[in-house]
Amino acid sequence: MRFVRVPGEWLRVTRLSSRKAYQTLLVGVVAVRVEQTISFKLNGQPVSVSCPPAYTLLEVLRDQLHVTGPKEDCAKGECGACTVIMNGVPVCSCLVLISQADGSEVVTSEGLVKDGKLNPVQEAFLEEGAVQCGHCIPGMIVSATALLMRNSNPSTDEIRTALSGNLCRCTGYTKIIAAVQRAANNWSHQKP
Amino acid sequence: MRYEIEVITPRILAEALNILAKNEPGTRIVAGGSDVIVQLRDGVLRAKKLLNILPLKELRFIRSDRDTVHIGSLATYSDIVHSPITQDHAWPLVEAAKQIGAVQLQNTATLGGNLGNASPAGDSIPSLYALDATVSTRSRDGTRKIPIEQFFQSYRKIDLKPDELIEEVYFKGLGNRDRGCYVKLGLRDANAISIVDVAVVLRDEREDKSFKEARVALGAVAPTIRRSRRCEETLESIPLTPDLLKKAANLVADDVSPIDDIRGSAEYRKEVVVSITYEALYRAVYAEEEHRG
């Protein structure tokens, strides 16, 4: 671990004044940024990144590694837009500390594309037209892929349960579920 | 600022206990992270150092020892849902685990984390009350075993010293002559915090459909999980009928002290907790064969 002085960063102190108004004082350059080198496998490639260890996996993926498939919406684990596959299971990357990803294997929607070829779930979403604005789709596709990895013949209920942590606010879910059913039919035990 | 926070990741339990023994102020334990990370971001929780215990394999287990079920504090909800031991001997807890968050959260959130966060709406806790669980904590000085009702002292306050961590939870597993059920009322099926949740366990069934022991635990209706002794006493040592279950369920209303919040009003909770308790009792007694296979 190393400690980096952050130039131009002001530590803010908020206190209650006698008039009961909050005052913010700027008290000088004292902020220290902690950095740690984290290594993990991202979409099959080993990566190593130096970053504050209490940042989330999602922040590092997007802001430092520029992998923008996973999105940040709620930052609470409710919407599923940030879903990635970590060590074989779907997780919310907004709720994983980057230091907890050290040594892990992470797959995002980008990593599901093999040699320029979309995976069956991605294909099926296109074929069914299961997309409107597209914002939730990387998370949906990652969750659906994780489902098919462990159960390549899911029932509609199983699909609904597997996607229950992924919110879509525009298409409705009918086409999305149809797409996962179509993908299941084309699924040939292929790994993401 | 989160970039100022150090994260220490011990590789073995002893190392974690040594760090905790230093008693440094501002050190917080983080397991799955699903509560701690949100609280850090919201500024509810402040920490200088996080002790990331997630990689401690010693704390991630589910095993049975004769008729006792032991669940390590780092067992995830997915572990609980998929373990044959919990499926066969702790099905109300499995039901709760299935309804916590959604798949993504179940894969990271841990049982110990739910206890440590000590929310009155912590969904694993009513089942553990109903199963009469004991919490085992560990420090460098040894272990302490605390009955779960004493572990939760008051609103978000638990009996855990700064140099301790939660090691495991254990309880007598349910058998052929025991019944149990967990029912949750949320605003939707997934990723919903409970408005009310109820776990019931009835043990030692006799031929006349009476039970020796009843435990009814109510969640999200008081500063901590609550048991309703009067409801329990009504159910013990008497042949159960649907009417009797209704009568017993009505008694829980007096044992709760809910608040108004964004999920529901106190008044509504007081009403609905009776219906949810009745549903849990009815399903435990008449409709839970599905769980017992």
Could you characterize the architecture of this molecule?
The complex is a heterodimer of chains A (192) and B (293). With 192 residues, chain A is of the alpha+beta class. Chain A folds into 2 domains: 39-108, Roll (Ubiquitin-like (UB roll)); 113-186, [2Fe-2S]-binding domain (DNA polymerase, domain 1, Orthogonal Bundle), CATH 1.10.150.120. Chain A contains 5 helices and 8 strands; from the N terminus they run E-E-E-E-E-H-E-E-E-H-H-H-H. The longest helix of chain A has 14 residues, at 137-150. The radius of gyration of chain A is 20 Å and the shape is elongated. The model of chain A is unreliable at 13-23 (pLDDT under 50). Chain B is an alpha+beta fold and 293 residues long. Chain B has helices at 13-21, 36-42, 77-82, 84-89, 91-99, 103-108, 111-117, 125-130, 148-151, 229-235, 242-250, 266-286, 289-292; strands spanning 6-8, 27-30, 49-52, 62-65, 68-72, 134-139, 142-147, 152-154, 157-158, 165-172, 179-185, 196-205, 211-219, 226-227. Chain B has a 5-stranded antiparallel beta sheet with strand order 4-5-10-6-7. A 4-stranded antiparallel beta sheet of chain B has the order 11-12-13-14. Chain B has 3 domains: 2-52, Uridine Diphospho-n-acetylenolpyruvylglucosamine Reductase, domain 2, CATH 3.30.43.10; 58-172, 2-Layer Sandwich (Uridine Diphospho-n-acetylenolpyruvylglucosamine Reductase, domain 3), CATH 3.30.465.10; 179-292, Enolase-like, domain 1 (2-Layer Sandwich), CATH 3.30.390. The model of chain B has no long low-confidence stretch (mean pLDDT 94). Classes of the chains: A alpha+beta (192), B alpha+beta (293). Chain A binds chain B through residues 1, 6, 31-34, 36, 52-56, 75-78, 80, 83, 89-92, 94-97, 99-100, 102, 143, 146, 161-162, 164-166, and chain B through 1-7, 9, 30, 32-34, 37-38, 40-41, 50, 52, 54-55, 78, 101-105, 107-108, 189-191.
